[in-house]
Amino acid sequence: MSASLEQLLRDARIDLVLSRIEKDESVIKEVIQNVESNIRSVKFNSILVLGEIGEKSGSNAVPVITRCLKDDDWSIRREAARSLGKIGPLSEPAITELSSLITDEESTIRLALVSSLGKIGKASPESIKTLKKGLKDKNELVRAEAAKAIGLFGAEAFDLIPDLMNSLKDPNWIVRVSSAHSISDIGKGTVKTIPTLIQALEDRDWRVRYRVVDTLTEIGEPSIPELLKVLSHKNKVVRKGAVEALGELGFEDPKIIDALSIMLKDKKEDVRGKAADSLRSIGKKAVPSLIQALQTSKSKMSVVIISSIGGIGLDASGAIPQLVSFLNNKSKIKVSIARTLGKIGLNSSEAVEGLKQLLYDPKPKVRREAALALGKIGNYAESAVDGLLYLLNDKKPDVRWRATEALGNIGINNPKIISSLQLMIKDECDYVCESADDAIDKITEGH
Fold first, then answer.
1. pTM for this prediction
2. Which of 93, 122, 151 corresponds to the end of one domain?
3. In CA terms, which of 179, 285, 350, 360 is 20 to 30 Å from 243?
């Protein structure tokens, strides 16, 4: 004989109760009746079950659970608050009673209350008033959850933006992040928050700054004028955040590109690096500015700029002539140029010619990267075969490895190449042997 529903609730067999409801939804009515049980465990678990099935509990469950918000047992009050939130919009009639719990001494009850108001999703005057109090709660988790709940109201919470902006100054980083996130969630119409968000770029916690940048990006084009203004801010963290946001926005606006180009000369290295990264995000239109900056940059920054050009990909092919020209007078950045030519020179004979001369460079890492880049270009680098064959005798195994790999990717099937690769199968270095074997397979199989 199966156990009664009351017994299952008493024993906290929630899984079995939920199973019964799944088979027969009429069981829900009996669960609702058990909410008024005098047995503490039956009452508690009935409330829990109704929360677990959410909207399926129906509007009839709401007033019964609402009465439990005044129970003498604090755990019953908390579970009732939680379950009303899980039931969602159907719990709107309970908002007033729920809101009264904001003064409860038990912090987990206040936490459940503000969370549930967000899930119910009705920006009523009572909800707004309660969540404003929640933002000032003595418990940081309650404050953070209140901020999060406000964001769930969407555009209806527009009037709470000043309160969220104040919470961006909260001593707890979780509260600050939740506040910034909610400002973003409220929507793109939050233009009046931009000045405060700009100030929040100074926050000491990177998680808050990340969220603020994301929020400014979400707001979009209206944030651009303020972001451009603070590029000269005395705090490098603010400058860096503004640079990042402008890059994330991705507008091909000449004013933005020019401003970011100036930031490539910022006195702080991480700001310069972020400026290069942001120009990379903008893409093709930013290539001329990156090339121009490369003319006067020192070696370390030059590497960053060249990497950004490579990150743009084939759209940056216009940079090839300048990059090749730098091979003669900027020897310290040859490796970076080789890597970038491999990314942007797919169909460029000029890129191939530049890389061919690097195959004979006195530095092994330059020869290695040149061979690797030619391999990425593939069959368009056919004219580089003689140079790659020359590298099969290189003293450095990494150079021989990349040369065999490149020959395989170029894929020219002639006896000289095949015989040379067959000799490499006996190389003293295992990974060179394997690469030579793979290259022969690629060539002979026509891949």
1. 0.72
2. 122
3. 179
